[in-house]
Specification:
Structural class of chain B: mainly beta
Order of helices and strands of chain A: EEEEEEEEEEE
Number of strands of chain B: 11
Order of helices and strands of chain B: EEEEEEEEEEE
Helix content of chain B: under 10%
Number of helices of chain B: 0
Number of strands of chain A: 11
Strand content of chain A: over 45%
Oligomer: heterodimer
Largest interface: A-B, 27 and 24 residues
Helix content of chain A: under 10%
Shape of chain B: globular
Structural class of chain A: mainly beta
Radius of gyration of chain B: 13 Å
């Protein structure tokens, strides 16, 4: 597609369940980023991929959060044993050179 | 930890007025970006400034990067209802583009 796509657009889950969020970056973009946007917190960096490797995972808030990228393309962010404080919009961005990041529309996660 | 303080958090003005949004930090950034975000969408890049003292103009929007590369401002002239949205500043401090975002400014322009 022409832009970054994310799925699902909305996800409602129960506390304690695992969720998977998907990001399809722009074709040819080797860099991929995950951010979290919460009310009152702005956008927080979670993880950066270059190809399939993640040299910077410093923003992942706990070991319940993990992410992988396969084929230098699609990335999945997994949250295990979700908590209410995980409720947020999860945004994915891709880039060629880092400075110009193209963002997807986000996945709104609600943990009940 | 690098932090960006953005102000004001909320701005409600009438069409035709001018406004300025500020982004300040105690840290030096290699680049400073401004984004605009609309409900249900991801942020869209407006401009990137990389040189201290740099000023960039984009139609009615003027962006400035402080001499010390610690602060930036966004000035909108003659605001229009179509300018309504969330404006975000973001500082870049790494070679791979990791961004530190400010809290955002919600701008509402009334007709």
């Amino acid at each position: 597609g022409a832009g970054v796509s994310q799925s699902p657009s909305n996800k409602v889950t129960e506390k304690g369940k695992d969720v998977e969020l998907r990001c399809d970056p722009i074709s040819g973009h080797t860099a991929l980023y995950w951010y979290r946007q919460s009310l009152g917190q702005g956008l927080e960096f979670l993880i950066y991929f270059q190809g399939n490797s993640a040299p910077d995972k410093s923003g992942l808030p706990s070991d319940r959060f993990s992410a992988e990228r396969t084929g230098g393309s699609v990335s999945t962010l997994t949250i295990q044993r979700t908590q209410q404080e995980d409720s947020a919009v999860y945004l994915c961005a891709s880039s060629i050179q880092g400075l110009w990041q193209f963002f997807g529309p986000g996945t709104r996660l609600t943990v009940l | 930890t690098q932090l960006l303080e953005q102000s004001p958090q909320f701005l409600s003005i009438q069409e035709g007025e001018n406004l300025t949004v500020y982004c300040n930090s105690s840290s030096v950034f290699s680049s400073l970006q401004w984004y605009r975000q609309e409900p249900g969408e991801g942020p869209v890049l407006l401009v990137t400034v990389v040189t201290g003292g740099e000023v960039k103009k984009l139609k009615r929007l003027t962006f400035q990067f402080g001499d010390a590369r610690k602060d930036s401002s966004l000035h909108i002239t003659a605001a229009q209802p179509g300018d309504t949205g969330l404006y975000l500043c973001a500082g870049g401090g790494t070679s791979y583009g990791k961004l530190t975002f400010g809290q955002g400014t919600i701008l509402t322009v009334h007709p």
